């Protein structure tokens, strides 16, 4: 199983979007500086905001790209508020 995950940092008041097959491990990596030159290395308070279970990595990457292209905090917030948006994404990128 692959996942699109969205992290939130209170310190940066910012979201980070990625894809993985191990969400908890990836969060730990972001918070411990595993990715030294990555955007997430700016702070260590990343918390899981939302994860979307995908059928495979290809679908996860397409959904990740779509969310990033939206460039909208409101869109990300709406994904959490309105689960039907996630269903539509899964159908669109299946």
Would you give an account of this structure?
With 94 residues, the chain is of the alpha+beta class. The protein has one domain: 3-Layer(aba) Sandwich (GIY-YIG endonuclease). 45% of the residues lie in helices and 24% in strands. The protein has 4 helices and 3 strands, in the order E-E-H-E-H-H-H. It has helices at 23-31, 57-70, 73-81, 83-92, and strands spanning 2-9, 14-20, 47-54. The chain has a 3-stranded antiparallel β-sheet, sandwiched between helices. The longest helix is centred in the C-terminal third of the chain and has 14 residues, at 57-70. It is globular. The two termini are 14 Å apart.
Care to give the gist of this entry?
The protein is α+β, with helices and mostly antiparallel strands. It has 4 helices and 3 strands. The protein has a single domain (2-92), classed as GIY-YIG endonuclease, CATH 3.40.1440.
SSE topology:
Layout: E1 2-9, E2 14-20, H1 23-31, E3 47-54, H2 57-70, H3 73-81, H4 83-92
Antiparallel strand pairs: 1-2, 1-3
């Amino acid at each position: 199983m692959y996942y699109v995950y969205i992290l939130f940092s209170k310190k940066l008041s910012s979201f980070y979007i990625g894809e993985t097959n191990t969400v908890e491990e990836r969060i730990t990596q972001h918070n411990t500086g595993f990715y030294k030159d990555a955007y997430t290395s700016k702070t260590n308070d990343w918390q899981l905001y939302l994860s979307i279970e995908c059928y495979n990595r290809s679908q996860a990457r397409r959904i990740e790209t779509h969310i990033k292209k939206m460039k909208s905090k409101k869109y990300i917030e709406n994904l959490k508020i309105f689960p039907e948006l996630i269903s539509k994404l899964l159908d669109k990128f299946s």
